[in-house]
């Protein structure tokens, strides 16, 4: 709908500007920039995924569009993917999946299973038969470094504990849990 409105506006402007000798493309560029700014401000946010913490679902460098839910935690459900600025690093963005919602108890067992309210969460496993492969690790600036990893051992030692999710909060994790620090 917005595209059609912009096309009609640009067509009418072109007819008008032919008489005024103003360069059409400079005006069209300004109109497009204004439309993108309005859409970004009120309807959609655009983000580039900074790390591979959501791999294989969402890859580093992917462009994402999200609805700007500012402080609207009442509409978030388990399994939703959220984009947020962590309080410890407000200039960064994190892309994570909601594992637990308010009132849930989230825990891990020694088999690396995630339990929500004592029920295991089903996780799709990557179909990779190799044990040792070369992968990339990314710092917060988006630079990628190669390292060798053993898929049978975790990237970060697991924490076997239990968390209770308080009201107004959600518990989030990346899909690439064994190879992610954030």
TrEMBL record:
Location in or out of the cell: Membrane
Chain ranges of the Peptidase S26 domain: 28-182
Catalytic reactions of this protein: Cleavage of hydrophobic, N-terminal signal or leader sequences from secreted and periplasmic proteins
Any one of the GO CC terms: membrane
EC supergroup of this enzyme: hydrolase
Transmembrane portions of the chain: 22-44
Keywords assigned: Hydrolase, Membrane, Protease, Transmembrane, Transmembrane helix
GO biological process: signal peptide processing
Membrane topology annotation: Multi-pass membrane protein
GO molecular function per UniProt: serine-type endopeptidase activity; signal peptidase activity
UniProt xrefs under InterPro entries: LexA/Signal_pep-like_sf, Pept_S26A_signal_pept_1, Peptidase_S26
Taxonomy, superkingdom: Bacteria
Active-site residues per Swiss-Prot or TrEMBL entry: 53, 96
Family from the record: Belongs to the peptidase S26 family.
PANTHER family in UniProt: CHLOROPLAST PROCESSING PEPTIDASE, SIGNAL PEPTIDASE I
Name of the protein in question: Signal peptidase I
Source species: Arsenophonus nasoniae (son-killer infecting Nasonia vitripennis)
High-level lineage: Bacteria, Pseudomonadati, Pseudomonadota, Gammaproteobacteria, Enterobacterales
């Amino acid at each position: 709908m917005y595209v059609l409105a912009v096309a009609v506006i640009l067509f009418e402007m072109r007819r008008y500007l032919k008489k005024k000798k103003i360069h059409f493309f400079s005006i069209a560029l300004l109109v497009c920039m204004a439309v993108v700014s309005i859409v970004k401000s009120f309807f959609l946010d655009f983000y580039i995924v900074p790390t591979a913490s959501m791999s294989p679902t969402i890859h580093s460098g992917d462009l994402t569009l999200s609805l700007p839910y500012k402080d609207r935690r009442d509409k978030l459900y388990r399994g939703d993917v959220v984009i947020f600025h962590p309080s410890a690093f407000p200039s960064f963005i994190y892309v994570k999946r909601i594992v637990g919602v308010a009132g849930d108890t989230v825990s891990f067992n020694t088999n690396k299973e995630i339990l929500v309210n004592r029920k295991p969460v089903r996780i799709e496993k990557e179909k990779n038969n190799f044990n040792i492969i070369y992968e990339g690790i990314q710092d917060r600036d988006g630079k990628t470094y190669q390292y060798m990893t053993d898929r049978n051992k975790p990237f970060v030692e697991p924490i076997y504990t239990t968390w209770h999710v308080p009201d107004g909060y959600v518990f989030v994790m990346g899909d690439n849990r064994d190879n992610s620090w954030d």
